[in-house]
Amino acid sequence: MEGKVRIGFYALTSCYGCQLQLAMMDEILQLLPKAEIVCWFMLERDSYEDEPVDIAFIEGSVSTEEEVELVKRIRENAKIVVAVGSCAVHGGVQSWEKDKSLEELWKTVYGDGKVKFEPKMAEPVENYIKVDHRIYGCPPEKKDFLYALGTFLVGSWPEDIDYPVCVECRLKGHPCILIEKGEPCLGPITRAGCDARCPGFGVACIGCRGAIGYDVAWFDSLARTFKEKGISKEDILQRMKMFNAHNPKLEEMVEKIFQGVEE
Ligand code: SF4
Ligand code: SF4
Ligand code: SF4
Fold it and tell me: For the NADH:ubiquinone oxidoreductase-like 20kDa subunit domain, which residue ranges apply (predicted)?
């Protein structure tokens, strides 16, 4: 990319945790001579949402009609669109119960409360516009952001991670929560990149980085342990829905685990 790279950070419905994670990176300061931050309301009041940018980072899920229009405008104005975090990539925890009606969910949370905008079920950004790259996690790892940004700045393209959290967990030498305690750790079917943070603290992975594709060699052998440990299909499905409710292959994937592989 020639000259100063124009960057925009945009927030949809979210907890702002991804932006905060990025805003706390000292490395952002090193970026300033090479980049112009056109839009980032968390850091700069004079931000411009409808300006052309080279790279658009979008945080949050599309949860209002206004946000549908906003993501379309961002796409029109950006050369590269990056979905940042589980909300933008997968719809986030706010889309967990996507099979229930918006009215029912609204009533449960807000009672008879009214808002000025028109709310809708939370959805991933990709349901509305083409996304060029995804940065996973809730919130994402700083290194993933730096890697993506760094590769874009040198005119290259970041690679996606195609192995599960278990790989990092084994490399770190953590005890296996699934095998040793029989807890429903989602590490075998979750995209790596967090250095198996939760198992490192003795906590089973809840899949915040989203499900990895299941057409990989070790999926069957690792995932079948759920079955051997007596963990139910419903339990795994419920846990996976937390961050994967919009995954079109979710049920198929869980079904595959529980129907087993060839014995
Ligand atoms: S992905 Fe997680 S940290 Fe980021 S905005 Fe959504 S809820 Fe917050
Ligand atoms: S199942 Fe969980 S605890 Fe066991 S190796 Fe995989 S990530 Fe680690
Ligand atoms: S171990 Fe699982 S839940 Fe924990 S940070 Fe990694 S992907 Fe997210």
Answer: 15-149
With vertex at residue 253, the alpha carbon angle to CA 230 and CA 82, rounded to the nearest 5 degrees, is 125
Asked if residues 172 and 195 have their Cβ atoms less than 8 Å apart, the reply is yes
| Residue ranges of domains in the chain, CATH in brackets | 5-154 (3.40.50.700), 165-259 (no CATH)
Say how many Å lie between the CA of residue 87 and the centre of ligand 1: 6
Q: What is the pLDDT of residues 201-215, one digit of tens each?
A: 999 999 999 998 877
Query: Quick check: 263 pLDDT over 50?
Result: no
Cα separation, 234 vs 157, whole angstroms:
38
Q: What is the pLDDT of residues 84-120, one digit of tens each?
A: 999 999 999 999 888 899 999 999 988 998 888 888 9
Q: How far is the CA of 64 from the centre of ligand 3 (A)?
A: 28
